[in-house]
Design goal:
Order of helices and strands: EEH
Largest sheet: 2 strands, antiparallel
Strand order of the largest sheet: 1-2
Oligomer: single chain
Distance between the termini: 35 Å
Number of helices: 1
Number of strands: 2
Shape: elongated
Radius of gyration: 13 Å
Region (Disordered): 1-37
């Protein structure tokens, strides 16, 4: 472990139907940064909760 806060954030699905995600990583001690960025990304680009298989 590196001590850097991180999280996986769903970012949609390409035409193939595979789910895609981004992983924001913060500086050590910045536990609030990745969730805040995830919230901003979700507001800019909402994602479907199921893949179009």
């Amino acid at each position: 472990m590196t001590g850097r806060p991180a999280m996986a954030v769903p970012s949609g699905a390409p035409p193939s139907g595979a789910l895609c995600a981004v992983r924001p990583v913060g500086r050590p001690g910045s536990e609030a940064d990745p969730p805040a960025l995830a919230e901003r990304l979700g507001a800019l680009r909402p994602w479907r909760r199921t893949a179009g298989l």
